[in-house]
């Protein structure tokens, strides 16, 4: 009993300090929120069919063996599966965008919605339970802040996805001229279209890994038995790059009419160079217009201050002296 009292007395002294008591309350509240989120996660994961859980676990194990998703993604996927749109058009659109961003795993769509749910709920709950109780602000402003944080968390994954698509599209467009030159050389050397694309994919692994990955996937599809036309259509669909779409259309027309692949590639490469030159000239012509606003609002005011400041000060001093 005396030992118990010896433990309680220092604790009571600590609780007498308001700051220590407030800090302890915040820590306990944080632990409670963490336990609540863990319980909800386990509830969502356990509410699904055991057979489907087993299939997802086997699928995740296969992806991990191939360098796939981490452990966090394995429990975010089942959470996001409940939020996947039921409409086939919306689901296929999200899957297409994930493929264009370079995310081709079977659970990429579920993971996307799981991350969206996590970023929507957790920051808003943390703000509502850990920050607002200790800050003296108007309740309406607090509710507005929670809603804004939830909306930002909801939109953030989509913003990341669009940026990833733009970044990958730019990388594919930059690597396409080099790939075309290598394809022309390989085709004129006597290689077929599939063999030439596989060789180019091997040569571009270091300089342009994104384009090399797409071409390597094309080679895998053709070796698996897919027709060259279908593989080219799939390449066009999963990349979404206008230049690659034009290349695929040109190659399909060449296959249809029986013209030379090497000559077709050489003509398309020349047209692509002309297009890139015109784009560069257009950007160069826009430079003068884009520099107008920085000159007006940043350079000219400082120039006027330096040039007209001393005479104006001298004139003001002369007028004051009279």
UniProtKB/TrEMBL annotation:
Cellular localisation: Cell membrane
Domain of life: Bacteria
InterPro entries associated with the record: T2SS_GspF_dom
Type II secretion system protein GspF domain: residues covered: 180-308
Key words of the record: Cell membrane, Membrane, Transmembrane, Transmembrane helix
Pfam families: T2SSF (PF00482)
Transmembrane regions listed in the UniProt entry: 23-47, 108-135, 141-161, 292-320
Chain segments annotated as coiled-coil in the UniProt record: none
Record membrane topology: Multi-pass membrane protein
PANTHER family named in the record: INTEGRAL MEMBRANE PROTEIN-RELATED (PTHR35007), PILUS ASSEMBLE PROTEIN (PTHR35007:SF2)
The protein, known as: Type II secretion system F family protein
């Amino acid at each position: 009993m005396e030992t118990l009292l010896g433990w309680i007395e220092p604790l009571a002294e600590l609780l007498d300090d308001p700051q220590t008591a407030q800090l302890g309350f915040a820590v306990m509240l944080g632990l409670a929120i963490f336990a609540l989120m863990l319980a909800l996660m386990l509830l969502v994961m356990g509410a699904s069919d055991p057979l489907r859980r087993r299939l997802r676990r086997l699928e995740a194990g296969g992806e991990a063996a191939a360098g796939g998703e981490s452990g966090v993604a394995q429990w975010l996927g089942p959470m996001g599966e409940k939020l996947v749109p039921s409409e086939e058009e919306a689901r296929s659109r999200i899957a297409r965008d994930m493929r264009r961003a370079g995310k081709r795993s079977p659970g990429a769509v579920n993971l996307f919605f799981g991350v969206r749910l996590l970023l929507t709920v957790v920051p808003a709950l943390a703000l509502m339970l850990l920050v607002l109780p200790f800050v003296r602000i108007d309740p309406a402003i607090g509710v507005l802040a929670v809603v804004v944080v939830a909306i930002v968390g909801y939109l953030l994954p989509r913003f990341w996805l669009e940026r990833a698509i733009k970044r990958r599209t730019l990388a594919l467009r930059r690597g396409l001229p080099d790939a075309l030159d290598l394809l022309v050389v390989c085709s004129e050397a006597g290689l077929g279209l599939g063999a030439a694309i596989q060789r180019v994919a091997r040569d571009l692994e270091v300089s342009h890994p994104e384009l090399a990955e797409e071409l390597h996937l094309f080679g895998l599809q053709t070796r698996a038995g897919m027709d060259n036309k279908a593989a080219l259509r799939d390449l066009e669909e999963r990349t979404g790059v206008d230049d690659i779409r034009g290349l695929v259309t040109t190659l399909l027309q060449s296959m249809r009419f029986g013209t030379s692949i090497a000559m077709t590639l050489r003509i398309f490469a020349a047209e692509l160079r002309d297009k890139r030159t015109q784009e560069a000239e257009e950007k160069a012509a826009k430079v003068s217009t884009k520099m107008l606003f920085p000159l007006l609002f940043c350079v000219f005011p400082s120039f006027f201050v330096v040039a007209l400041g001393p005479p104006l000060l001298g004139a003001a001093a002369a007028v004051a002296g009279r």
